[in-house]
# Entry
Amino acid sequence: MDEQRRNLLAKVNRSKEEAQTAEKMPADIAEVWTETATREDMFARADSSRRLLRLVEAAIVRIQQGTFGDCTECKEPISLTRLKAVPWASRCIFCEEQLERENVRRLA
# Structure
């Protein structure tokens, strides 16, 4: 998990550098549009990497606390299959699905 954390940090830093470089460039309207779209894509990827980084870091804290593998909601063990698929999972599949259903209901 530490290696994944380092990779995510590198991605976030690269995205910041790319965004700073992209801000220094515009020329004609087509280039401006392309640069804007590219910049938005970079920001979206960086945001996604930052979110995943927070999840990985939280999992590392749970490892240090000795609570890794326990659902943060119901305190039951998270299945090994789920942890293999999503090593930073903080909730068991039941609690995760319940949370997703609640979020869908709130958006409806």
In short: The chain has two domains: 1-68, 70-108. The chain has a mean pLDDT of 84. The CA atoms of residues 8 and 51 lie 10 Å apart.
